[in-house]
Fold:
Amino acid sequence: MEKVILSAENLTKIYSKKSSANNSVLALNKLNLKVKQGEIFGLLGPNGAGKTTFINILGGLVEKTSGKVDVWGFDLDKNPRQVKASIGIVPQEVNLDAFFSPRKLLELQAGLFGVKEKDRITDLILKMVSLDKQANSYARSLSGGMKRRLLIAKAMVHQPPLLVLDEPSAGVDVELRQNLWKNVSELNQIGVTIILTTHNLYEAQDMCNRIGIINKGNLVALDSTSKLLDRIETKKIKFKVRNLDQFDKIELNGVKFYKNGTQIIASYDKNKFKFDQVINAVKKSAEIVDISTEDGDLEDIFLKLTNR
Structure:
């Protein structure tokens, strides 16, 4: 039986707004979820969905209104210090002292967590996040991707079994993003459980074993990535056409047509329309040069569940 490393039961957070006529905001509404040991769990949702509130509750920055949170066998209400010691949180913002080296930053962080010098694994962590060669450089001299990896290293100094990554690839270019995900995968392979929030749905689709989707404080989906993808009913056909002069005349009730460069893309419910119906609708107004098809992806599920 797989061990549950984190569970939230009926987790609710209501923010009070004294200066507003509507004097309260429901950020989390009886949230129930469990994260299993050893998995990469994706927590998705639009801005304002409640993801950051959830992470801040875990980190002790926000006090929950009601419900129960259990991390690594510790109750958040009864054992808050043990819960904090069981979690490493990597924030969105890069908050590093520009004049400290990675080694000094990790040593300082370890001291703040009360890790004795003989128990520190600073050099090992630097190697794990591929910063061993920059160990003694100023943090200000590091690239954006290196700074992101250093944030992960800071969260690992007390060797927590659970690592929370809040939008770790924000503002990182393609190559650095690939290196970042390589590091995350390697951490997961040595036993670190990871909760990942991201707006990049393709990343979530590639990285996560299971995914929970939050919208307006409510958990609207929670399943394995493969089962979520099985729920997709959307199919897309991409038409490369000779010209787009008659695009506005293409019509088939229930099918969405839109332009992308020199292509026409049709998106439709594969249970309601046949392939040739869509092709015939395009042929009436455009000369088709090439056709390719694809099933929908996690983005389609996300948009459907969040009504976007």
